[in-house]
Amino acid sequence: MQLSNTAKATGDSFVRNILALTQKPGVISFAGGLPDPLLFPLTPISSTIKEILDEQSPNIFQYGPTAGYLPLREIIASQYNQKGYNTNAQNILITQGSQQGLDILCRALLNPNDNIVVEAPTYLAALQLFKASGANIYEVSLEEDGPNIDELKSIFKKHNIKFFYTTPTYQNPSGITCSGQKRKKIAQLAKENDVCIIEDNPYGALRYEGSEPYSYGVYWSEGTVVLGTASKIAAPDFRLGWLSAPSFLYEACARLKGAMDLQSSYFFQRVFYRLLENDSLRIHKKNLIRSYKQKRDLMVKEIEENFKGLLEVNIPKGGMFLWAKFTDGTDTMELFEKAVKEHVAYAPGSVFYASKGGENAMRLNFSHASLEKIKEGIKRLKRAHQS
Ligand SMILES: Cc1ncc(COP(=O)(O)O)c(C=O)c1O
Q1: Ligand 1 geometric centre to CA of 98 (Å)
Q2: Which residues sit opposite 164 in a β-bridge?
Q3: CATH of span 5-41+282-386
Q4: pLDDT tens across 144-188, in order?
């Protein structure tokens, strides 16, 4: 029996394989993109759940409309409005994490052989989805302040591009934030060339310094889809994300979601709504920021002390990842096996590229491991590099 072309195009998930490897006891893993489990806001979550159950609403656990819990969509829209992005609850669709939002957008926008642009490097699971959709993937290189505008201009001009997928804030994997100036220019370019912008922003709330530039939606709301998630500020297992789409696209997205899974869990939407509404998450975010910033700083210091310039790091102003490059030509895919023998793991840079690139780079997650494990893990990495 033959698998579908879509199944074949999804290929073997490197992430699944490394996560399996790195979950072996004793391995210190900087490979995944996991929040610190010790920081999950268990107390507010459990009191909110109790509060909801105690109310004994007759509709609890009942089916609900595909678009999602209206009060939650309203609060999400109002948070965007406060940041200058003009949207409303009728344009917010609740999804099963932002990953489902991406899947829905591929189904809504792409036919096989359509052209899209991604950043190089970019988020691995999005790349897999785009490949499975049969899209032709063009890449724009990332500079310190965001995508290279000239490259983007030329790709937009030469190819009939459907959408540009970008994570402009504390990007996964590079940690780079696109400047406000560039966002404005790119939005203008996209508008001129009728290219939809898909702005994926799971990390914006995890800001350690500086300010977050405006969303692309501020510059071009009719052509931008903004994706958000509860995964990094509450818990990934809520499987709760959302997309905010212009009306021409929204209806198609809602229909597609309905056909895929009818709706996301209203129970968790209610829980998340109350956590937002009663300010628990604002307080929780402060804890996350304090802890993750300390971990980021420690990892940077340990790398500097152990590698003395052999491994250069790009210090992100937020998010969960360091992007580090060997200056001595070390191939991180080859180093990976030695690292696992030393019981430490990371994500090799090349997996984040649609074509070639990142051979000397690695992505290191700093949010998940404890401070002690960060210290020990970087020592192990040094041993692997020296072996
Ligand atoms: C850039 C990016 N987009 C989307 C996701 C998916 O997040 P979720 O489906 O948990 O909302 C992630 C997860 O790490 C991510 O890094």
Answers
A1: 6
A2: 117, 197
A3: 3.90.1150.10
A4: 999 999 999 999 999 999 999 999 999 999 999 999 999 999 999
Averaged pLDDT of the chain: 95
Gap between the terminal Cα atoms of the chain: 45
Q: For 325-339, how does the pLDDT look when each residue is reduced to its tens digit (9 = 90+)?
A: 999 999 999 999 999
Q: Which residues lie with the beta carbon below 6 Å from any ligand 1 atom?
A: 33, 97-99, 123, 167, 172, 200, 202, 229, 231, 236, 241
The mean pLDDT value for 225-237 works out to 97
Mapping DSSP to helix (H, G, I), strand (E, B) and coil, where does residue 198 land? Answer: strand
Q: Tokens 């209610």 belong to which residue? A: 270
What the block records as the tokens of 40 is 């999950």
Domain ranges across the chain: 5-41+282-386, 62-278
CATH level 3 topology of 62-278:
Aspartate Aminotransferase; domain 2 (3.40.640)
* 41, containing H or E segment: none
How far is C-alpha 334 from the chain's CA centre? 26
Ligand 1 centroid – CA 328 distance (Å): 32
pLDDT of the residue at 19: 66
Atom number in ligand 1 closest to CA 230? 11
Question: 324 and 362 in contact (C-beta within 8 Å)?
Answer: yes
Residue 66's nearest CA partner among 244, 259, 215, 224 is 259
**Could you give the CA distance from residue 84 to residue 81 in angstroms, rounded to a whole number?**
5
| Bridge partner list, 196 | 163
Q: Tell the residue number behind the tokens 């990332």, with chain if given.
A: 142
The full DSSP string for 221-238 is GGGEEEEEESTTTT-GGG
Residue 32 identity (one-letter amino acid): G
Percentage above 70 pLDDT, the chain: 97
| 358 in Cβ contact with 349 (< 8 Å) | yes
| CB 363 within 8 Å of CB 173 | yes
With residue 277 as reference, give the H or E element that holds it. Answer: helix 266-277
Whether residue 188 contacts residue 156, with contact meaning beta carbons closer than 8 Å, is answered with no
Eight-state DSSP code of residue 322: E
CA distances to 32, 207, 366, 382 from 343, rounded to whole Å, are 15, 30, 16, 12
